[in-house]
Amino acid sequence: MTNKSKYSQIIKDEAKRLGFLSCGISQAGFLEEEAPRLESWLKNKSHGDMQYMENHFDKRLDPTKLVEGSKSVVSLLLNYYPSETQHADTYKISKYAYGTDYHFVIKDKLKELLQTIQEEIGEVGGRAFVDSAPVLDKAWAAKSGLGWIGKHSNLLTQQVGSFYFIAELVIDLELEYDAVTTNHCGTCTKCIDACPTQAITEPYVVDGSKCISYFTIELKENIPTEFKGKFNDWMFGCDICQDVCPWNRFSKAHSEPLFNPHPELLDMTKKDWEEITEDTFRKVFQKSAVKRTKFSGLTRNIDFLLE
Predict the structure, then answer these.
(1) 213 assigned binding-site residue
(2) How far are the Cα atoms of 50, 215, 292, 298 from residue 276, in angstroms, in the given order?
(3) Residue 12: is its pLDDT beyond 80?
(4) Which of 76, 153, 218, 287 has the most Cβ atoms closer than 10 angstroms to its Cβ?
(5) 185 has binding-site annotation
(6) pLDDT by residue (tens digit) across 111-168?
C-alpha cells in the first residue's frame, strides 16, 4: 500500500467515524468544464441579486488560488433527511433548515477531521469550507466520485438521493484520487416539470433568480407579484425538485441529533405561522439557518403566500 492510498484510507475512515455519509477525493486544480458554464450563468444574470456570486471568479474555479500549495480536495456528504416532516397543510420550510444551522455542525466535524489528519499523518495544512466561500461544492463532489449533477443542478447518488450537505477540506497533501461516477438521470424530467416557477430553464441549468429558495431567502426586496400563487406554501427554501426525484425514494433518516427540529416546529399550523411573534421565532429557530431570513423576512414570505 502506497502512502497516498494509506493516507486516503485514514481520511475516509475518520470521515465515517465523524458521521459523514461518504467521502471522495480529487486533485486540486482548475475546473475546466465549469468555467464556461459559470461565465454564461453569470452573464445571463441567473444569480439575480446575489452579487457575491460575481466575486472571486478565479478562486471559484481553482482552489489552489484559495489555499496556497493545495494538492487535494476532500469532499464530504452529511445526511440531513429527517425522520419526520411538517404536516401537509402548513407553510413549509426546507428540510435542511429543521435543526441547528449546518454551518456550525459541519465546521466542527471538519476541524476534528483536519486535526486527526495532522495527528495521524503529520504536518498537513489546509482549510475547511462549508458553503461559505467561493468553492463550487457540487462540482468537486462530482469530480470526487460522490455522485452526479442532476437536471435540477443538485448532486445525486443512486444509494441516497440528494438530501445531504456538501463540504470540503482543501489540503496540501497528495492523495489517491477517486474516479468520476456516471449520470443516471436518463430521460426523466420530473424535477423540471414540477418546478412551479419554471426555474429549471433547461436540463442542468437553474435560473437562480426564479427559484423559490432565492425569493424566500436571498432576495431582500419585495417578491415580484408575477410569482404570486406559485410558491406552493413554501415560506423558507423549497424542496420540490428534490421531493419529486425518483432517486430520493432511497433517502434514509439522518442520525445527527443536532439536525432534529425544535419540538414545536412540526406541529405549527398555518394559523400559528400567520400569528407568529418574534419571541416564538427566536425560540423555534434559535440555532437554525432560518435566522438568516430574519423575523421580518419570514413574515414577508408568509404575507406573500397569504395575499
Answers:
(1) yes
(2) 28, 20, 17, 10
(3) yes
(4) 76
(5) yes
(6) 999 999 999 999 999 999 998 777 889 999 999 999 999 999 999 999 999 999 999 9
* Closest C-alpha to 93, from 246, 281, 225, 307: 281
Joined together, the cell numbers standing for residue 97 give 433548515
Query: Which cell numbers hold the place of 243?
Result: 421531493
Tell me the per-residue pLDDT of 205-227, one tens digit each, with 9 for 90 and over.
999 999 999 999 999 999 999 99
- CB count within 10 Å of CB 2 equals 8
Q: Is 23 annotated as a binding residue?
A: no
Q: What are the extents of the domains in the chain?
A: 3-171, 190-245+262-306
pLDDT digits (tens, 9 = 90+) for 270-295: 999 999 999 999 999 999 999 999 99
pLDDT of residue 52: 67
Contact 241, 200 (CB under 8 A): yes
Unique residue bearing C-alpha cell 442532476: 150
Nearest CA among 35, 32, 22, 29 for reference residue 75 = 22
Q: Is 241 annotated as a binding residue?
A: yes
The answer to the question of whether 166 is labelled as a binding residue is yes
Kindly state the cell numbers that stand for 195: 418546478
CA–CA dist 293, 301 (Å, integer) = 10
| Residues 126, 243: Cα–Cα separation, whole Å | 35
pLDDT of residue 55: 67
Residues with catalytic roles: 131
Q: What is the pTM of this model?
A: 0.93
Strand pairing of 234-236 and 92-93? Answer: parallel
Is 303 labelled as part of a ligand binding site?
no
CA distances from 49 to 33, 45, 197, 215, 222 (A): 25, 9, 17, 10, 12
Spatial neighbors of 4 by CB under 8 A, at least 6 apart, are 174, 175, 176
Burial of residue 280, with CB atoms counted within 10 A of its CB: 0-12 exposed, 13-18 middle, 19 or more buried: middle
